[in-house]
Amino acid sequence: TDEQKKQVEDMRASSKQESQTLRDAMRANAEAERQAVESGAGEAELRSLAKKTGDARVDMMLFSMKMDKQFREMLTPEQITQLDQMKAERKARFEEHRKQRQQRMENAQP
Predict the structure, then answer these.
(1) Structural element, H or E, at residue 34
(2) Measuring CA to CA, how many Å separate 3 from each of 6, 7, 10, 44, 78?
């Protein structure tokens, strides 16, 4: 409905900064890891960077779960069923694509 569309738009707008901050942190952590590896950093530094990256990934997962929960709360039971069906179909297409890609890679190996 138009009301639901407005609610989703408001939710996205209000969470935009948090989402951007999380993405920036993930990007910065990945870059710090790359630089550390290239510079020959020691195990302690690499483990510390990997922990920060892991923590950032968990933060992003929790944020995504929170947004998904809020989004689902806006939907009717019928819409939730439809959403779940669409997600299952998308997952099946992704898995099929992944299998095809894996087969191409296996066939290309000498």
Answers:
(1) helix 2-38
(2) 5, 6, 11, 52, 16
What's the angle, vertex CA 45, arms to CA 41 and CA 47, rounded to 5?
Answer: 120
Backbone angles phi, psi at 65, to 5 degrees: -65, -40
Stretch 65-81: mean pLDDT, rounded?
A: 93
Give pTM, 2 decimals. Answer: 0.71
Is 29 in contact with 50 (CB distance < 8 Å)? Answer: no
**Residue 29: both structure tokens together:** 């952590």
Between the alpha carbon of residue 104 and those of residues 26, 80, 98, the distances in Å are 31, 36, 10
